[in-house]
Specification:
Helices cover 0% and strands 57% of the residues. The chain has 116 residues and is mainly beta. The strands form two sheets. Strands 2, 4, 5, 6, 9, 10 and 11 form a seven-stranded mixed β-sheet that branches. The protein has a four-stranded antiparallel β-sheet with strand order 1-3-8-7, with no helix packed on it. The chain is globular, with a radius of gyration of 14 Å. The chain starts with a strand and ends with a strand.
């Protein structure tokens, strides 16, 4: 089993920054990919960023140049650095882990609110 614990959400003004963390524990020796989704009321779930086991990263067009996904294997933690935040970024952010056996695990979600 795998557990993902998220932290780092909060309330920021437009143009501000937040850093989300996703700490993984348990049977995490067979990771294929990790990443972040976000979900806002009345909007479709959006894949924000991914990082593969080989270190390849991808970011949605809506966040390119502003968000950066990274991982620290020594800490079993994935991060999402969010800069130049916009009100449109307001959502619950969920991290996920997809393993070699075809299973997907989800974090509990963390709220990000960008508002004046």
């Amino acid at each position: 089993q795998v557990q993902l614990v998220e932290s780092g959400g909060g309330l920021v003004q437009p143009g501000g920054s937040l850093r989300l963390s996703c700490a993984a524990s348990g049977s995490i020796s067979s990771i294929v990919a990790m990443g972040w989704y976000r979900q806002a009321p009345g909007k479709q779930r959006e894949l924000v960023a991914t990082v593969t086991s080989g270190g390849t990263t991808n970011h949605a067009d809506s966040v390119k140049g502003r968000f950066t996904v990274s991982r620290d294997n020594t800490k079993n933690t994935m991060y999402l650095q969010m800069n130049s935040l916009k009100p449109e970024d307001t959502a619950v952010y969920y991290c996920y882990l997809h393993n070699f056996y075809g299973l997907t695990y989800w974090g509990q979600g963390t709220q990000v609110t960008v508002s004046s």
